[in-house]
Amino acid sequence: MRSRRDVILDRWVDLVVAGVRGRITESELRAELSELYGLIERSTGGEREAAGELRAALTEISRTRARQGFSPSETAVSVFALKQAVLEQVGAIGDVAAYAEFVAFSSGVDDLGLLTFETYAAAREQVIADQTEQLLELSTPVVKLWEGILGVPLVGTLDSARTQVVMETLLERLVETGSQFAVIDITGVPAVDTEVAQHLLKTVMAARLMGTDCVISGIRPQIAQTIVALGIEFGDIPTKASLADALEWAMERSGTRLVGGAGA
Fold first, then answer.
1. Cα separation of 243 and 216, whole Å?
2. Which of 36, 66, 81, 212 is in Cβ range 3.0-4.6 Å of 124 for a Cys bridge?
3. For 187-231, what is the HEC assignment?
4. pTM over the 0.70 mark
5. pLDDT at 258
6. Which keywords does this Swiss-Prot/TrEMBL entry list (predicted)?
7. pLDDT below 50 — which residues of the chain?
8. What angle is formed at CA 49 by the lines to CA 45 and CA 51, rounded to 5 degrees?
9. Is 203 exposed, middle or buried (0-12, 13-18, 19+ CB in 10 A)?
10. Over the Cα atoms of the chain, what is R_g?
11. Which CATH number fits domain 4-137: 3.40.630.120, 1.10.490.130, 3.40.50.150, 3.90.79.10?
């Protein structure tokens, strides 16, 4: 590999560059593969420190590829293509001993390819988990409706995980703002089951412990029928037909009076 370094490296770059389809430049790819090539040379030469550096470099490349949207096959082929580049040179030499050395080299490259695949899979799972958490945060906004009154407008399907995020986000905002009232509006929620209803009740109870009164608004007829059929008790938690009604209730409780309208 040392005597034919430039030829093998050029061929390796040619084989890989077609697979990346312009997502990274050829110069970036060449720099990346040159670093790997140097580490492979050192590790196959017996440098134990280089073997660790090689695995660390491959791990970082796999994580980057996962974030850039490469597939696991596209990531692994960047390593496996080196075997073809080396084999072509071994064939050109035609030395039986070189073929024997290539077998051992090929086994080592396979291990490196599997490492990239495993690292890619773990990194991809982490990316998906991060995106899911971000979507949950985006889908559970807590907004200020009035001084001392927070609103939690919920849209779409509610499940236990999302309802848990609602509670955590609301409680954090209550700490930040010191609000005395919160309106949980479920106008945009198509259905509520027993588990979700229990989470909402727990959210209201937790807010009360922090000195905040909550009101639930926007309960659709279908949801009201479900709540009755399931025997869910909201107890003394106030409910209102619309967000406007709930805001009016909270403003009255806070002692806020609006003066306006034509001629006022």
1. 9
2. 66
3. EECCCCCHHHHHHHHHHHHHHHHCCCEEEEECCCHHHHHHHHHHC
4. no
5. 67
6. Phosphoprotein
7. 261-264
8. 65
9. buried
10. 31
11. 1.10.490.130
Cα–Cα separations (whole angstroms), residue 227 to 133, 184, 231:
29, 16, 6
The closest of 41, 18, 33, 29 to 108, measured between CA atoms, is 41
Q: Which single residue is written with the structure tokens 């008790």?
A: 233
Q: Which two tokens stand for residue 102?
A: 């290539």
| Cα angle for residues 110, 6, 94 (degrees, 5° grid) | 65
**Per-residue tokens: 79:** 């390593």
pLDDT tens, 166-207? 888 899 999 999 999 999 998 888 877 778 788 888 889 999
CATH code 1.10.490.130 region(s) in the chain: 4-137
The pLDDT, as a whole number, for residue 185 is 92
DSSP letters, the chain, are --TTHHHHHHHHHHHHHHHHTTSS-HHHHHHHHHHHHHHHHHHHTT-HHHHHHHHHHHHHHHHHHHHHT--HHHHHHHHHHHHHHHHHHHHHHT-HHHHHHHHHHHHHHHHHHHHHHHHHHHHHHHHHHHHHHHHHHHTS--EEEETTEEEEEEES---HHHHHHHHHHHHHHHHHH--SEEEEEEEE-----HHHHHHHHHHHHHHHHTT-EEEEE---HHHHHHHHHHT---TT--EESSHHHHHHHHHHHHT-----STT-
Please provide the CATH number assigned to the domain covering 143-254: 3.30.750.24
